[in-house]
From TrEMBL:
Location, primary (coarse class): cytoplasm
Catalyzed reactions per annotation: (2S,6S)-2,6-diaminopimelate = meso-2,6-diaminopimelate
UniProt enzyme class: isomerase
Protein name: Diaminopimelate epimerase
UniProt cross-references to PANTHER family, sorted A to Z: DIAMINOPIMELATE EPIMERASE, DIAMINOPIMELATE EPIMERASE, CHLOROPLASTIC
Marked site: Could be important to modulate the pK values of the two catalytic cysteine residues: 206
Family according to the record: Belongs to the diaminopimelate epimerase family.
Lineage summary: Bacteria, Bacillati, Actinomycetota, Thermoleophilia, Solirubrobacterales
GO biological processes: lysine biosynthetic process via diaminopimelate
Domain of life: Bacteria
EC number, UniProt record: 5.1.1.7
MF terms (GO), sorted A to Z: diaminopimelate epimerase activity
HAMAP family the record matches: DAP_epimerase (MF_00197)
NCBIfam families: DapF
Amino acid sequence: MTVIAFEKWQALGNDYLVLEEDRLPAPLTADQVRALCHRHFGVGADGVLLLARTSDAGFVADLRIFNPDGSEAELSGNGAREAIMYLHRHGWTDRRQFSIRTVAGEIRPTILDETRCRVDMGRAKLHSAKDFPSGGPDGRGELAGRTFQFVSIGNPQCAIAVEDPDALDLGAIGPDIEHSPLFPNRTNVSFYAPLDEHAIRARIFERGVGETLSSGTGATGAAVAHVLRGGSSPVTVRLDGGELEVEVEDDLHVNLTGWALPVFRGEIDLP
Ligand SMILES: N[C@@H](CCC[C@H](N)C(=O)O)C(=O)O
């Protein structure tokens, strides 16, 4: 038996288990991630956040992000805010502005108060040879009769403007888009509808997860797509689990603001 200590967090209902690498008896495996995230046989979560101390003075921690299917994601907007607020509450740093390193690169949070932070996520890109190789420089494409906007926020996002996101059965249409051959690394999908110049309603189907109550990078992908189609920054994104604010600069530099809270901590024995 392996005993794994965790703290469960959620941000707009997007829940993650935070693990500290130093406290693991052995390197985390994909099987363990699947077992931890399982909603009936494990703790239950939309993913795992693995935090490691780093000797690089420029960073407070290295953050790795795993989906419930055991795959590793380059970035998560909600997961990053949960990890950031965890680092703040657990005293890894007393600075209100710092950097952490993810597979997608550096992200720079500013702690706003005890539950909220604003995260500089870097520049969104509309082209990725790795994630959407057949895409042109504008990232536009068509799939099963729907026009989409590809956006890379470190991880791949396919944002689709629809009339009424609430009328869709995401569980039925999400998997074919996630696994489309257009996206060799699979993709996250956001279905959104503009509410006004500065607001959209969005629902999310995540790569390696399925439908979730919210996604920070999904919200960011949809906000970038909204701005490219005439909307204006900042964009308030109304998700099933609450609202996020996304600032999109002219060069597509994005900042994401929202809350994250701990739920409970514990230990689980895994075979
Ligand atoms: N929940 C997320 C995104 C998590 C990663 C995603 N499933 C992927 O595989 O890229 C968020 O808040 O951004």
